[in-house]
């Protein structure tokens, strides 16, 4: 029986999981090629975000700030600091796109960034992402929506070969690439928006770039509306798909709450077969399905005796829990950063919106944690196993290349969880 | 009366060398061309190491959500380490419209009941400062209600840089904690360590030596610090600023109010550590203490020399280029020289006047002080045929292009380079970098492109 609790009664966050909207917006703009994300707010918001993402991806992060001060907060309606910022950025580099987004500070004083944007004569997309509303997932999703609304040209032409993939924020770069390739294997040309697969995948470039390097191009975003199909992954991305359909009512929309595990991947294959004239999926896909089946059986013994705490962004959480459930993992507690309609679907004994203090108070109810870096101290204090997933992971390298999705990633994920769970049990017995 | 500090006064700190030259403080960041943290981050850096106090951030999620548990400041506090926990009011639209004070009061009640901290620091942030939440009043009422210190910290990000925020943090401690309690006992050799945050246990590399000499660390701001101790800081005989220019305002004010002299020093590298110990003893002024300090230094240096000998053989003739900020521009240079490397250049772009003078002293006449390291360092490596680049992650590409060893100095370090023994950690890292084939291999040309 699933009970959904929200920690609304608590007047604070203790050991927070929740991340801010501007951070989600930053990530989304980093999935556009040659972009300079420009955060409209105090300099610290950008600095914290930059350091945070640099440590997670082990990559330099392009990001600038309008550096609102106590003086400009009072005297300026945003015009000065934004116009001045763009002038200063363009003195050094010429971005293909400037991604302008707000933090709580300018939203509180009521800056009209839409108005300012209309005065700017270089490519710019603006989005309101106050950090006292929503979270990482919504910041990313709002930005994706804004990119389509403001850049994509309306059309009534359709290219049936072309697919637009809208990934949710927690999909790591390699996961975006794997889903793109999976769909492409059915004969489609696939564009992802945003596309971290080619920007934050951790590749050694020719030189240190001042702008985002890789990702979908502005030109490609402009031309998205002739796609025959748009595929959204995660509840947060549904609205973006609908906005794209407003650009061309002939676009068909397929939505997947997540792409984790056997059943979800089967359903993607099924839909893609319907869309194509393929009778069977490509051989490699079928092979990976068999490997996942085998992985489920190989890991089920360890999984079946393991109680899990899973924490993360709602779209991520739903997929992780489903993967674990399919192999018999018992998710006793699932904690989401923010509320989402998806949470109702999670197969867990308890689902709540909360923080790691809540997790700590329920520490007797799980053996293994699937969650971010901040769970490490919790795992250590209460002798739990840990599989690190989600933002941030500052402890380990290689986050951008961790794939948990589809048949292939699902198999690796189950093996990792089963192995960590077994090793953890042995360690407990030995101590 | 509001406890809001006078920001302007903090910006024109008379004890800073550069303020004798500059007429106006340069504080305003340039929109679109700004890097570095905000005042809130500065306050966080200087105060969060008090592990026995809860640090409650009154604001929206960016401030704390992205920054808690980021600094490895160690503590010996036996209770729950609150430094490594995150507490935020996570204000909503509703709070922005109708004030967040009620939520703050609720959060405080919750914290006191569940965590029973020794004190609570309450940090205002941009949004809660802008909407005018009165954290002074909430703190005053809470202190009365719960009988523990509540310290309002007025360092919302938009008032300025990280450096200013550290000053504001020091200001809050000066106004609300220092001088509010008497120590159980005093000794003639009581000192306060100011600006030592015990990152990766740096402080513990030399604190045992102070113990041995009978020099007592009465309190610290704030590495391995205790709230109860900093409240008695006004009874110290000496303030020792460790590697942090930002807290000069605090020590100057303590000198004015409590007649406590201050000295500034660093514990990086052999010479600085020895000089540091010697200057503390000298400042305390006891001939016997000075004598014992010299003996201890001789003993430690000799022991270290023996341990460093194998490294010196390895590092003979090796040249290093250093590109980092602030006091590291000379303190790490000095440490590298102690290991027997030649430091051919260092960046002084972000350094103060004082730091530049010191860098010149350590590097000598032929050393290059880079004002624009991004453009200069590649050429410097070519010209000097340097073997090693120590810099922030952004410079990794330069090292790979030149095929020389690289050490990332700016990453949150995992181990201490401080004191005598920390030098061995640095030596080991330098050795590993010089022996690692990755820097030449990774830049290998693709065999199929000509």
From TrEMBL, chain A:
Record keyword Transferase present: no
| Superkingdom field | Bacteria
Q: Where is the Nitrogenase/oxidoreductase component domain?
A: 20-420
Named in its record, the pathway it takes part in is: Cofactor biosynthesis; Fe-Mo cofactor biosynthesis
What is a biological process (GO) this protein takes part in?
A: protein-containing complex assembly
Molecular function (GO) terms for this protein are: nitrogenase activity
Which Pfam families is this protein grouped with?
A: Oxidored_nitro
Does 4Fe-4S appear among the keywords?
Answer: no
Keyword terms, alphabetized: Nitrogen fixation
Q: What does this protein do?
A: This protein may play a role in the biosynthesis of the prosthetic group of nitrogenase (FeMo cofactor).
NCBIfam families for this protein: nifN (TIGR01285)
| Family under the similarity heading | Belongs to the NifD/NifK/NifE/NifN family.
What protein does this entry describe?
Nitrogenase iron-molybdenum cofactor biosynthesis protein NifN
Tell me the organism.
Desulfuromusa kysingii
Automatic annotation (TrEMBL), chain B:
- Kindly list the biological process annotations in GO that this record carries: nitrogen fixation; protein-containing complex assembly
Q: Name one GO molecular function term.
A: oxidoreductase activity
Q: Which residues form the Nitrogenase/oxidoreductase component domain?
A: 38-434
Q: Which superkingdom heads the taxonomic lineage of this protein's source?
A: Bacteria
Q: Which regions span the lipid bilayer? A: none
Q: Which Pfam families match?
A: Oxidored_nitro (PF00148)
SUPFAM superfamilies, sorted: Helical backbone' metal receptor
Q: What family is it from?
A: Belongs to the NifD/NifK/NifE/NifN family.
Q: What protein name does the entry list? A: Nitrogenase molybdenum-cofactor synthesis protein NifE
Q: Which organism is it from?
A: Desulfuromusa kysingii
């Amino acid at each position: 029986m699933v009970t959904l609790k929200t920690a609304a009664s608590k007047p604070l966050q203790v050991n927070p999981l929740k991340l801010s909207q501007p951070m989600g917006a930053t990530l989304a703009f980093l999935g556009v090629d040659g972009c300079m994300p420009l955060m409209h707010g105090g300099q610290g918001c950008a600095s914290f975000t930059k350091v945070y993402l640099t440590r997670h991806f082990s990559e330099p992060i392009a990001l600038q700030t309008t550096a609102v001060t106590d003086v400009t907060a009072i005297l300026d309606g945003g015009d000065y600091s934004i116009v001045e910022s763009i002038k200063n950025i363009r003195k050094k580099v010429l971005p293909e796109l400037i991604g302008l987004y707000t933090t709580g500070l300018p939203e509180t004083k009521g800056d009209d960034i839409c108005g300012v944007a209309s005065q700017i004569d270089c490519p710019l997309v603006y989005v309101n992402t106050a950090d006292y509303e929503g979270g990482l997932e919504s910041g990313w999703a709002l930005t994706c929506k804004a990119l389509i609304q403001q850049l994509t040209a309306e059309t009534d032409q359709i290219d049936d070969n072309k697919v637009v993939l809208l990934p949710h924020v927690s999909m790591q770069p390699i996961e975006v690439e794997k889903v793109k390739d999976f769909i492409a294997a059915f004969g489609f040309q696939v564009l992802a928006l945003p596309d971290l697969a080619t920007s934050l995948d951790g590749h050694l470039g020719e030189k240190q770039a001042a702008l985002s390097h890789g990702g979908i191009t502005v030109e490609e975003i402009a031309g998205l509306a002739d796609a025959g199909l748009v595929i959204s992954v995660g509840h947060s991305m549904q609205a973006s798909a609908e906005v794209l359909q407003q650009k061309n009512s002939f676009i068909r929309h397929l939505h997947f709450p997540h792409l984790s595990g056997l059943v979800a991947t089967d359903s993607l294959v099924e839909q893609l077969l319907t869309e194509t004239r393929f009778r069977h999926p490509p051989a490699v896909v079928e092979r990976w399905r068999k490997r996942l089946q085998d992985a489920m059986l190989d890991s089920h013994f360890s999984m079946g005796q393991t109680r899990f705490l899973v924490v993360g962004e709602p779209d991520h959480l739903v997929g992780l829990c489903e993967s674990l459930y399919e192999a018999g993992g018992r998710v006793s507690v699932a904690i989401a950063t923010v509320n989402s309609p998806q949470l109702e679907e999670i197969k867990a004994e308890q689902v709540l919106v909360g923080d790691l203090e809540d997790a700590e108070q329920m520490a007797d109810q799980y053996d293994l944690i699937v969650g971010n870096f901040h769970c490490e101290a919790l795992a250590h204090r209460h002798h739990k196993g840990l599989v690190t997933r989600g933002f941030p992971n500052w402890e380990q390298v290689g986050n951008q290349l961790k794939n948990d999705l589809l048949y292939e990633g699902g198999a690796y994920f189950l093996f990792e969880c089963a192995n960590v769970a077994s090793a953890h049990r042995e360690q407990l017995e030995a101590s | 009366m509001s406890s809001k500090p006078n920001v302007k006064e903090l910006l024109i700190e008379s004890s800073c060398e550069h303020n004798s030259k500059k007429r106006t403080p340069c504080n305003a960041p340039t929109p679109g061309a700004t890097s570095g943290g905000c005042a809130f981050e500065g306050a966080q850096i200087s105060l969060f190491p008090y592990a026995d106090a809860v640090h409650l951030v009154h604001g929206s999620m960016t401030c704390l959500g992205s920054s808690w548990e980021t600094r490895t400041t160690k503590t010996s506090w036996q209770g729950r380490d609150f430094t490594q926990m995150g507490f935020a009011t996570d204000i909503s639209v509703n709070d922005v419209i109708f004030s967040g004070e009620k939520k703050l009061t609720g959060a405080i009640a919750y914290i006191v009941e569940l965590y029973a901290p020794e004190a609570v620091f309450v940090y205002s942030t941009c949004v809660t400062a802008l909407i005018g939440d009165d954290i002074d009043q909430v703190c005053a009422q809470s202190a009365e209600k719960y009988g523990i210190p509540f310290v309002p910290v007025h360092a919302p990000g938009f008032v300025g840089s990280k450096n200013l925020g550290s000053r504001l943090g020091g200001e809050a401690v000066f106004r609300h904690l220092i001088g509010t309690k008497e120590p159980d006992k005093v000794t003639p050799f009581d000192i306060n360590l100011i600006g030592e945050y015990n990152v990766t246990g740096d402080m513990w590399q030399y604190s045992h030596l102070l113990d041995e000499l009978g020099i007592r660390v009465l309190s610290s701001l704030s590495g391995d610090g205790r709230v109860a101790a900093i409240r008695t800081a006004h009874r110290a005989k000496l303030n020792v600023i460790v590697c942090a220019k930002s807290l000069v305002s605090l020590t100057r004010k303590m000198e004015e109010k409590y007649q406590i002299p201050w000295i500034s020093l660093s514990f990086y590298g052999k010479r600085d550590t020895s000089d540091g110990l010697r200057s503390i003893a000298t400042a305390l002024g006891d001939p016997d203490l000075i004598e014992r300090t010299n003996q201890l230094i001789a003993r430690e240096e000799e022991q270290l020399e023996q341990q460093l000998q194998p490294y010196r053989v390895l590092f003979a003739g090796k040249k290093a280029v250093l590109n980092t900020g602030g006091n590291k521009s000379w303190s790490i240079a000095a440490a590298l020289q102690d290991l027997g490397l030649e430091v051919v250049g260092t960046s002084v772009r972000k350094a103060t006047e004082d730091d530049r003078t010191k860098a010149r002293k350590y590097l000598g006449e032929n050393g290059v002080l880079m004002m624009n390291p991004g453009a200069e360092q590649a050429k410097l490596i070519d010209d000097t045929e340097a073997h090693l680049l120590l810099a922030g992650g952004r410079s990794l590409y330069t090292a790979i292009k030149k095929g020389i060893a690289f050490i990332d100095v700016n990453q949150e370090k995992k181990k201490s380079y401080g004191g005598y023994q920390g030098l061995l950690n640095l030596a080991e890292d330098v050795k590993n970098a010089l022996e690692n084939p990755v820097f030449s291999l990774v830049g290998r040309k693709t065999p199929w492109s000509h």
